[in-house]
Amino acid sequence: QVQLVESGGGLVQAGGSLRLSCAASTTTFSTYSFAWYRQAPGNQRELVATIGSRTLTTYKDSVKGRFTISRDNAKNTVYLQMNSLKPDDTAVYYCNGGPAGTGWPKRYWGQGTQVTVSS
Questions:
Q1: How far apart are CA 46 and CA 71, in angstroms?
Q2: Closest C-alpha to 7, from 87, 108, 93, 98
Q3: Across the strands, what pairs with 37?
Q4: What is the pLDDT of residues 67-97, one digit of tens each?
Q5: Cis bond leading into 105, ω under 30°?
């Protein structure tokens, strides 16, 4: 069973930055694709950004130019750098990952980390 552990959430003012991390307990990390999802109260969970095993990335339109997803295969860690944060970015952020070549979401989920952006 693969475990994904997120960290880095918190409270920040609008315009500020946070970096989320997702550490994965797998020996085949480099072959996995990963994503960040988020879920605000009363809303469905939505896909924010993805990164493939060959580092191809995609983003939700509303975060393009502000968020950057990246990975460090040597550290088995995926990151989400979030800049110019807005109150609408407030949500629980979840790391999702699994073998490349299958659809989203993938098999494994983290426990989530809260991001709160104050106006």
A1: 20
A2: 93
A3: 47, 94
A4: 999 999 999 999 999 999 999 999 999 999 9
A5: yes
The three-state secondary structure class of 61 is helix
In contact, 93 and 20? CB cutoff 8 Å: yes
Query: From CA 104, how far away is CA 84, in angstroms rounded?
Result: 27
Q: Which amino acid would we find at residue 107?
A: R
| Residues with Cβ within 8 Å of residue 57, at least 6 apart in sequence | 49, 50, 51, 69
Low-confidence ranges of the chain (pLDDT < 50): none
Under a CB-based contact definition with an 8 Å cutoff, are residues 104 and 58 in contact? no
Please tell me the distance from the alpha carbon of residue 12 to that of residue 93, in angstroms, as a whole number.
14
Asked if 34 and 97 count as a contact pair (C-beta separation under 8 A), the reply is yes
**7: burial class by Cβ within 10 Å (0-12, 13-18, 19+)?**
middle
